[in-house]
Amino acid sequence: MQNKRAEMILAGILLVGILACFIFKPAPTQEAPVIQAQPVEPKITPEPEPEPVQQKAKAEPEEPKEADEVVQGDASVSAEPIEEPGEEPVVEVEPPKDPALALIETVDAPEDKVRVLCNLAGTLAEAGEMDRAAIILVHAKVIIETLKTDAERAPALTYLVGALIKIDQTDEAKNILKSALAAVSAIENTEEKVAVLADITGAMKEVGDSAQAKEVLAQSLVLARQIQEQSQAVLNQSLKLADQLADNAEKAEALKAIALAMAQPGDPRQAEDAFVQALTFATQIPEPDKKAAALEDVASAFTRSEPGAAFAQLQFSIGWMYYEGKNLPRDPALAARWYRKAAEHGHPQAQVNLGVMYTEGQGVPSNNAEAFNLFSQAAEQGHAEGQTALGMMLALGQTGDPDFIQATKWFTLAASAGDDAAKQAQAELSKKMTPSQVAEGQKLAQAWADSQKVEE
Q: Are 146 and 288 within one domain?
């Protein structure tokens, strides 16, 4: 009976569907799949066993019943959240960390981390990754805030300045540089100050701020004076200790070492005195061989120090000892070498002595032109012996035709300084000159003397 009733209902539904097709002139519509579908077989059991929920989920997508089940499913199925396409579950996921930042975590010291971060930011900026470089510098600034001492903050701020310049944040770089300079002034350790100022000096080339450059220069000069004062105090103490040594050879060796140290940051005049003392004690060594070895050692050390013009007198003294054979073995070639060192530093007597050696061919090849140049250098400095030697070469025509007028000029100047040889030479030369020539030479001498007064 129930089967028959179901068949009648199904027949009625089919009849209504057919009438609808004629009335509405159907084209393909949404009802078409419903009509074609076979949701119920002709011999369906009255009370079919319900299938598990998982099997409903596996229904074929083309069955309309499956679509209805998605919308009007059981409460047990709809209890689970349905994921919309393109949406992810609401779960807080940590963003991926920059691999470079992850690498920084392996660096222990905070100031080293800042340095590495700033270098990395600069490299990224040069590669055109400005945004990423700026993010890296944010991390560097955070670390700088944790630094407690000025010795740590100053170099870290300097690293930051360099990186900011590379990402075109020059104004901020200038402000940071001010903070770095303030931190430097508070650093007590001299070596740390020197290192930080060196870094800041390098950064100044990029910043291009004249006012800040002056401030850096001022701090550098103050630091240099402090270093010099400290080194001088230590070296002065060393001189006192060296004087307490009993052995002259040991004294000479100690004073040589002190003089070499003074030749670097200290007072050149004091260093020269130390060298002279070293030579003096070396000359007092009784054994000839040890004396010669000690003197040569001091002289060689002096050569290596390259002390400059302030040591010209000592260079001349060593040359004189080699030339005369006093306290050093006589050696004209070595004498000429030391005279030349002093002459190049403007020592007029060394210029004259070396000039004489060139005229006589002692220790050097004979060369009147070289001698003339050396005598001229000494004469122009107002050295009477040099003026006399130059006048003699001019009067004798040793480098060209004799020039009595120029010779008179130099003889007159040397004679006015009390040089007896010049007076005698001028008296002899005047016999070969007319009064007007003598007057002209004297006029030239007066003009030269007046020019020296103006320069003074």
A: no
What pTM does this model have?
0.43
285 and 423 share a domain? yes
User: Residue 326: what residue type?
Assistant: K
Question: Do both 268 and 178 map to the same domain?
Answer: no
Range of the domain at 188: 105-208
Distance CA 240, CA 233 (A): 11
Q: Compute the distance between CA of residue 126 and CA of residue 135 in angstroms, rounded to an integer.
A: 15
Tokens at 374, concatenated = 């050396």
Torsion of CA 158, 161, 163, 168, to 10 degrees: -170
**202 and 271 housed in the same domain:** no
Query: Rounded to an integer, what is the distance from CA 43 to the centroid of its chain?
Result: 97
Tokens 């290192």 belong to residue? 195
CA distance 236 to 5: 129
* Tokens of residue 315, six digits: 């260079």
Q: What is the pLDDT along the chain (456 residues), one digit of tens a residue?
A: 544 454 555 445 544 454 455 455 444 444 444 444 444 444 444 455 555 444 444 444 444 444 444 444 444 444 455 555 555 555 554 545 556 566 666 677 787 888 888 888 888 888 888 888 888 888 888 888 888 777 777 778 878 877 887 888 878 877 877 777 777 777 777 777 777 777 666 656 555 556 656 666 666 666 666 665 666 666 566 666 666 677 767 766 776 666 666 555 445 555 566 666 666 666 667 777 777 777 776 666 655 555 455 467 777 888 888 898 876 788 999 999 989 988 998 999 999 999 999 999 999 999 999 999 999 999 999 999 999 999 999 999 998 999 999 999 999 999 999 999 999 999 999 999 999 999 999 999 999 999 888 765
Q: How far is CA 315 from the centre of its chain?
A: 35
Asked, for residue 84, whether it belongs to a domain, the answer is no
Eight-state DSSP code of residue 310: G
Asked if residues 409 and 445 have their Cβ atoms less than 8 Å apart, the reply is: yes
* Residue 426 near residue 417 (C-beta atoms within 8 A): no
Distance CA 110, CA 108 (A): 6
Q: What CATH number is attached to the domain comprising 153?
A: 1.25.40.10
- DSSP letters spanning 327-353: SS---HHHHHHHHHHHHHTT-HHHHHH
Closest-CA residue to 194 (of 174, 220, 213): 220
**CA nearest to 161, candidates 182, 171, 176:** 176
d(CA 393, CA 371): 9
